Amino acid sequence: MAQYNYETQTEKYDFITGQHGGYYRHEFIDHAYLYNLYFPPEAVFTNFKDQIHDIVLNYPVAQDALAGLIGDLIHQPAERIVVGNGAAELIKIISGSMVHKLIVPVPSFNEYANAAPEGRVVEYPLEFPSFQLDVDKFAAEAIRVKADIAVVVSPNNPTSMLVPKADLIKLAQKLESHDCMLIVDESFMDFAHDPDQTTLEHEIERYPNMAILKSMSKAYGICGLRIGYMLTANLAFAEAVRKGIHIWNVNGFAEEFLRILPDYRQEFVESCKQVQLDRDNLYENLCTINGMTAYKPDANFIFCRLPDYAQSSTEVTRRLFIEHNMYIKDCQDKTLPDSNRYIRIASRTETENCKLVEALADIIDSNILEVS
Fold first, then answer.
1. pTM of the model
2. Residues of the chain with CATH 3.40.640.10
3. How far is CA 290 from CA 114, 183, 197, 294, in A?
4. Domain with CATH 3.90.1150.10 in the chain
5. What's domain 2-40+266-371's architecture?
6. Residue 91 burial (CB < 10 Å; 0-12/13-18/19+)?
7. Residues 6+ apart with CB under 8 A from 257
8. 231 has which bridge partners?
9. Is the pLDDT assigned to residue 370 strictly greater than 70?
10. What's the pLDDT tens digit per position in 246-300?
């Protein structure tokens, strides 16, 4: 413990809130980060061990070969694909150096706005309190502010809600004549019901002003490998993003994972079904907490508004960690009305989820006793 400069659980909480990973080193239950606990299977790690000398001692392949590996996985030509060191690298290139004016519905994943230069982002508030996206109004605002890039995360983070496929196609069509690229972030799509029918990947060639971004960390449970990709039929846009990437941006372990991943397609599908089952049970259990509003999820996490009688999301998050050693996401830093009333809970195993609901209910109920 001493090496991390904390001695008490309170000090540990203060330390953890300043970190962006490495949570496994600190022995708490992580309901904050969003990833698949049921993938990859142990055979993948055995393969890494068997290949470790070659992986460590040799240069990995570069962009063309990586794009081919992703292309084999998603049945798309390599020239439409750009592979990043996580989706974060691609977001940094698009938002940081390519955008003139970006529009994004909020609340959303903050990195799109954070990576953009000051003054180049328009935050468009989602309908309140449903947090649904009205694509007609969003398109009108994008056109009004002369946005050249519009971003929609679907399923959205933190709300865990899908934007219907037909709505996104309609949005792309509305923006096309205004020279506005639509970036659809599908990082959580594999946890949605019938993802193969919901994804826009199969439609991409029909919409030249659309690009799909995907972080593989979430669905494939490989946060430490750092793999993400962009798919677009707009080859000029793909090349512009590709120019922002250095030659060996993805390491050998990530390359090896992409090479063997097609062998585990069925295991992956089954893992996502298990995530969906656990998530749906968690949602139902959260709905039983008196006064809690839990939004029906499409991703592997639940967005909740705390009961009016409960403490703030910041205080509930803090108490949950200090008293129960469980960490959830406080949505205080998200752009939405009453942000200190909202939390985001990542689904874990059925056992862990049940313990989380019990602990959360205990903290909320204890506030009633303190108030009374």
1. 0.96
2. 59-263
3. 36, 38, 36, 11
4. 2-40+266-371
5. Alpha-Beta Complex (3.90)
6. buried
7. 40, 44, 220, 222, 225, 227
8. 81, 212
9. no
10. 999 999 999 999 999 999 999 999 999 999 999 999 999 999 999 999 999 999 9
